[in-house]
Amino acid sequence: MKKYLAALATTAAISTTPQAFAVGDTLEVKGIITPVACTPTFSNGGLIDIGKISSSKLSQTSNTLVGEHPMKLVIACDAAIKFALNPIDNTGDTSPVGPVVFGLGLTPKDDKLGFFTPKVTGVTAEAASVDAIESTDHITWAKATAAKPGHFLSFTTTGGSLPIEAKDVTYDFLVDTYIARADSLDLTDEITFDGSATFEVHYY
Fold first, then answer.
1. In 10 A of CB 115, how many CB atoms?
2. pLDDT digits (tens, 9 = 90+) for 147-160
3. Strands 166-179, 128-135: pairing kind
């Protein structure tokens, strides 16, 4: 995130008499210029509750899809600005399929429970349809189909390739939740899973 800072100082030494030792004082003017602020807000408080799942419903040989839930993320800014979202996996390295999805945590025996992926189903900027794009370096951008840890998520004009300015943006996600293949888990006791992701706003 670029920060715009300004520190200004004005000094004055005004002589009132033609003496060799004049008395002076200093006037200082200081300030900080901050970027436009944007506030991201998930629908339903960002909560998806899968409920209880019987272990007998889980596949022994492949990951089991246990939920598909729509979720909106609204970003409201003070003024139009270019920005990207930085999705962070709060559970660390707990995904059984690699770092491009979000983990659901670990079992008491440190088995990786599963993962969730927020698939992008639509993006609007100022109520107009735009394309989702992603980047790992803020320089090269490609079309995005989902929010991923370590991938900055932004938006562009239809068919565009670089982030654009906007004041009000809405991402529509379909969040798919999977439990890892049952033969990789100890399912003797009840297990609670609790995935979590934070979406930070980075300004350009």
1. 25
2. 999 999 999 999 99
3. unpaired
